[in-house]
Specification:
Length: 423
């Protein structure tokens, strides 16, 4: 999952707030887990009450599951309409928008990342059909490459992501992946299990004998390829909420890594001083200085990769690489080439360019090929996936809508610079 744009750090993490891409002041952030429970509120598809003066909120996706207290306030303040799954399929959704079936709604609310996207990409075909009354689109998830936030902004609609809610989970996962690249975890884990998962013989005695040999080989050989993270340079590509949390978790106060970063806007001196972070003006400069480079920046607006064969020429031989941002930011063929040549020593990828498919060469490198160690850790876009994250997605999306429709500042806007009047 990608690093969100400039939102304050949760109180649970002692990292200073910063605004790498902010274009307006950010108001205080509410608690993301107020009296959360596991109950589910059934939400009926409401009809439009012509006599109601409450703003209409179009709720796409599953019903609220956790933040019952906030939803009670939310549903009292607004007329919530939740289209059926069939109505959310793209053709039906477009037809409903043209018919103004849901009236002059003021907000679009998508509280879960796994549902509410049945209509596909929010491009000009959909956005041009939105009523002029629409003022805010608040969604779960940190990434927003599935929605044209520029076009939304030009239409006067503030897009708010929920990356703040996922930041701690993503940073925690990144820590595990970074450690993996230093401690050869794919090799160590694969050597303990692979002979049993993919036996070369139906003979149990032969499989056990091979498993013992593979285990002993890893025990003896992985040491020479493993290192403590302490004292190594951690290069963070993107230094927003997630980047700063990773720095706090792995920096001088904990794992003792040296923190370096590259971002489009340099952070204030107070942020750099608190995290012991050294700014690099270019991506090539950061890559050349890093022992482990971590990609934690939003997807590029043009969809082009940031890590390419050209940028990988800047890295030192054996550099480690981690991606917890977006798969589209990496030329995976170039990364596979760099791993095979030893330019990149090991890697860990939570996100992939063609999800749910995984690049075949990288997948092969994640396993054991004879005595050859696995050099790549792969996961299934799991970094932000915790119950606490989904509780936060719900809460933050509702709080963004309540703030904007009550005339206050949005909490986590990402496209204010595209709005005609620069809110």
């Amino acid at each position: 999952m990608a690093e969100p744009t400039n939102t304050p750090m949760p109180a649970s993490t002692p990292v200073p707030a910063s605004s790498p891409r902010s274009s307006s002041p950010v108001p205080p952030v509410p608690s993301l887990t107020p009296n959360a429970t596991m109950a589910t509120i059934p939400i009926r598809a409401a009809s439009i009450d012509a006599l109601s003066h409450r703003p209409i909120v179009l709720h796409i996706g599953d019903p609220i599951k956790y933040n019952l207290g906030t939803y009670a306030e939310f549903s009292q303040a607004f007329e919530v309409i939740r289209p059926s799954v069939a109505e959310r399929e793209r053709t039906a959704f477009i037809k409903a928008l043209k018919e103004r079936r849901w009236g002059e709604f003021s907000a679009i609310f998508r509280p879960f990342w796994g549902t509410g996207g049945e209509m596909g990409r929010w491009d000009a075909e959909l956005i041009d059909l939105l009523p002029d009354s629409a003022r805010i689109f608040a969604s779960a998830g940190a990434g927003f490459d599935w929605a044209d936030t520029k076009l939304l902004g030009e239409k006067g609609i503030i897009y708010c992501n929920s990356g703040l809610a996922a930041a701690e989970a993503v940073a925690d996962f990144a820590v595990a992946m970074i450690i993996s690249t230093f401690r050869q975890l794919p090799w160590c884990m694969g050597a303990a299990t692979l002979p049993y998962l993919a036996p070369t013989s139906s003979n149990t005695t032969e499989t056990d004998a091979l498993a013992r040999l593979v285990f002993q080989a890893c025990h003896a050989q992985a040491t020479a390829a493993s290192h403590n993270p302490r004292g190594h340079v951690l290069g963070l590509i993107g230094f927003g909420n997630i980047g700063q949390q990773i720095a706090a978790k792995l920096g001088h106060a904990a794992f003792g890594m040296k923190i370096a970063y590259y971002d489009v806007i340099r952070k204030p001196p107070t942020v750099e001083a608190e995290l012991g972070a050294v700014f690099h003006e270019t991506l090539d400069g950061l890559l050349a200085a890093s022992d482990c480079a971590v990609l934690c920046t939003p997807a590029s607006a043009d969809g082009k990769p940031l890590i390419t064969a050209e940028t990988l020429r800047a890295v030192r031989p054996g550099t480690r690489f981690v991606n917890i941002a977006r798969g589209s930011l990496v030329d995976e063929e170039a990364l596979a080439d760099a791993l095979e040549s030893g330019v990149v020593g090991s890697a860990a990828l939570d996100v992939h360019a063609e999800e749910p498919s995984v690049h075949s060469r990288l997948a092969r490198m994640a396993g054991l090929d004879g005595a050859r160690p696995g050099r790549v850790m792969l996961s299934c876009h799991n970094a932000g996936g915790t119950v606490e994250t989904h509780i936060g997605f719900e809460e933050l999306s509702m709080r963004n809508i309540m703030a904007v429709l009550r005339g206050k500042d949005a909490i986590t806007p990402v496209n204010l610079h595209f709005l005609p009047n620069k809110v």
